[in-house]
Amino acid sequence: MKAVVYEGVAKVAIREVAQPRAKDGSVVVRVHSCAICGTDVKAYTIGISSIRPPVILGHEFVGTVHEAGRKVKGFEPGDRVTLATTLPCGNCRMCAKGLFNLCTDKLPVGTWQDGAFAEFVEVPERGMVHGNLIKIPEALSDDEGTLSEPLGCVINSQNIAAVGFPDTVTVIGAGPLGLLQAETAKARGAVMTILVQRSKQRSEMARGFSIDHVVCSEETDPYEAVMELTGGNGTDVVINAAPSLEAAALAFRIASKAGRVSLFASVPKDDPELSVDLNRIHYGQIAVYGASDSTAKNHRDAVRLLSSGKISTGRLITHTLPLQDFFHGIDLIRKREALKVVIRP
Asked: What is the phi/psi pair of residue 262, to 5°?
């Protein structure tokens, strides 16, 4: 079968590889759709030290069960499925707390375990035992279902920050995850959502989504714009979905008293430190949360939210391409001409 294989920084190739076969406790899925993630772009352009090459990339996917091992219960050939792709050990102290996304011995699909930019992908026994393989309802298309993985990460972060009615919510960054953050906040009951984006091009793309206000920081001061929209109070929740220190600093400035700041995006590894006014956090009683990855439960909740029609999946998925055009999809994302690009192996 053909697959996108990561062999090192800027060493990614479409190669012929052996088709996986199901073991007693595993399942092999025929991949229908797999979306390109920021992780895939980063792996190709600058590399990720945690990746174990050679490995097949891709972890946001939907397909049908092709083969199930003899010990597998509840799944059979033909079932349409997606996967919560951080496979936990179930034994460490994080797993004991139910924080499976923070497992200290996790097995991530698409970086350690072969992923889904391929005709077939194996879901190992660990994924089956811990409920990571999830059935997809007929109402959800294959392409739409690929969004359940990033949406699960969004739901994890918003659960931690307790986003809901009657919050005002500002999201910084209008990439795919920022757009998902803004629409998810609205779906959870936020009374006003504000999206801050630096580039005019991306700001214009964001205006078609279910977001109350889009602020382009190339055209206006984002701090002043948010303060004007909130009557000088700032917002109850600020979610930083932009991978920069400048964006993280803005998040702290526009949080209201008793506000919550969610540091959803990572920042450059070689420059991760930010100077913050601790007295403002102290006297303003501002809570700060980190959020990383998602659990199988978050992923199942994402499937339900996508099925509700409250997420603008049609606008978010801007391109669908065959496997041989994977590198073109990477270029579209790097040039900011695309939001989500779905590969159909």
From this structure: -105, 115
Class of the CATH-defined domain 2-151+294-344: alpha beta
* Long-range contacts from 14-22, C-beta under 8 angstroms, 24+ separation: 14/323, 14/324, 14/326, 17/56, 17/118, 19/119, 19/120, 20/114, 20/120, 20/121, 20/122, 21/67, 21/122, 22/67, 22/68, 22/69, 22/72, 22/122
- Hey, where are the domains in the chain? 2-151+294-344, 162-290
In angstroms, rounded to a whole number, what is the distance separating the alpha carbons of residues 167 and 230? 11
Residue whose structure tokens are 């939210």: 305
Token pair listed for 152: 């699960």
- Three-point CA angle 98, 189, 340, nearest 5°: 75
The third-level CATH classification (topology) of the domain covering 162-290 is: Rossmann fold (3.40.50)
> Which token pair is 328?
């073109």
pLDDT, one tens digit for every residue, the chain (345 residues): 999 999 987 789 999 999 999 999 999 999 999 999 999 998 888 888 789 899 999 999 999 999 999 999 999 999 999 999 999 999 999 999 999 999 999 999 999 999 999 999 999 999 999 999 999 999 999 999 999 999 999 999 999 999 999 999 999 999 999 999 999 999 999 999 999 999 999 999 999 999 999 999 999 999 999 999 999 999 999 999 999 999 999 999 999 999 999 999 999 888 999 999 999 999 999 999 999 999 999 999 999 999 999 999 999 999 999 999 999 999 999 999 999 999 999
Distance CA 107, CA 24 (A): 19
Chain-centroid distance of CA 17 in Å reads 27
